[in-house]
Input
Amino acid sequence: MSAQIKAPEGAPFARILATGSFRPARVVTNEEVCENIDSSDEWIRERSGITERRWAGDDETVATMSAAAAEKALAAAGITPDQIDVILIATCTHPYQTPSAASEVAAMIGAPTAAAMDVSAACAGFAYGLAMAQDMVRGGSATYVLLIGAEKLSAWTDKYDRSTAFIFADGAGAVVVGPSQTPAISPVVWGGDGNQLQAINMTQNWLEFKENGFDTFPAISMNGQQVFRWAVSEMARVCRESLEAAGITADDLDAFIPHQANNRITDALIRALGLPESIPVARDIVTTGNTSAASIPLAMDRMLASGEIPHGGNALLVGFGAGLVFASQVVTLP
Ligand code: UT7
Output
């Protein structure tokens, strides 16, 4: 008989230990966006909630923004780079096919020996990554996971496409996930609808770009109405299932932090969930725009820093986007 091999042994539970964020300095107003599209400040505010957003400069990349957010999260967690076992970066705008943004960041922050990979789940990427991080910590393949949501969507948005130009923006949010003696991240509720693959897409892929003589740079295209309808009808169910999986009700929440896609989607979810008015809701989109995988950790970091939501409270997270894919969980706030 062969010798018995060992299996990994993990922590009883996992938790978010700390958050950190990076917002580019450049503020882009609705007026500036409207220089290129037939729209107005009033329309953009009314239909999305956005008043301004941040766009990264030429020297700010997914990797540099990630590293800046990560350094703050690590300092707040009291974790040194050499203690990180895994770096996960949720992003869909890292400009290299390979190596990953996570490998670039590993070198940048002084954690070159950490396992590193990117998570491609668009606006659900942070919630996907959080599910993976919790499984790694509990499964024994990591003690500390550095999870970052980071996007430079301005580089992949056609500034003349009025269905996307006003909505997408840039930034990075990071969390450190580590061991816990008590439950602090609920089971994930995740899935997708692959039949709606075309709802958010690229105008062309890299090979088509080459075949077409490097003419029109690939940009994100979106059927906004289709995504809006799906988000409003399906994400309420997902949130309900997530609360049930966590064993709590909407009344037990101290924060609701949905992906910052559109304030009207957030409003519809609040109504559908019957969320009490006293519960703080993330509205980071107003001054940040839609930063895809970065939007949940950016909003969480800001709400914690301002004292709007309590350390140790329960927050319902839900991410949703291209694929179409979604993921939701309840977390104990760091
Ligand atoms: O983060 C990843 C997931 N993404 C999302 O969750 C995005 C979900 N979708 C949305 O947030 C919304 O669909 C948008 C904010 C993108 C668009 O808002 P909407 O209310 O769905 O606009 P619409 O496409 O239904 O267009 C309504 C009207 C149309 O005019 P008519 O036909 O009513 O005369 C459009 O032609 O608004 C017009 N329109 C615009 N007008 C001014 C469309 N885009 C613009 C614009 N400025 N930028």
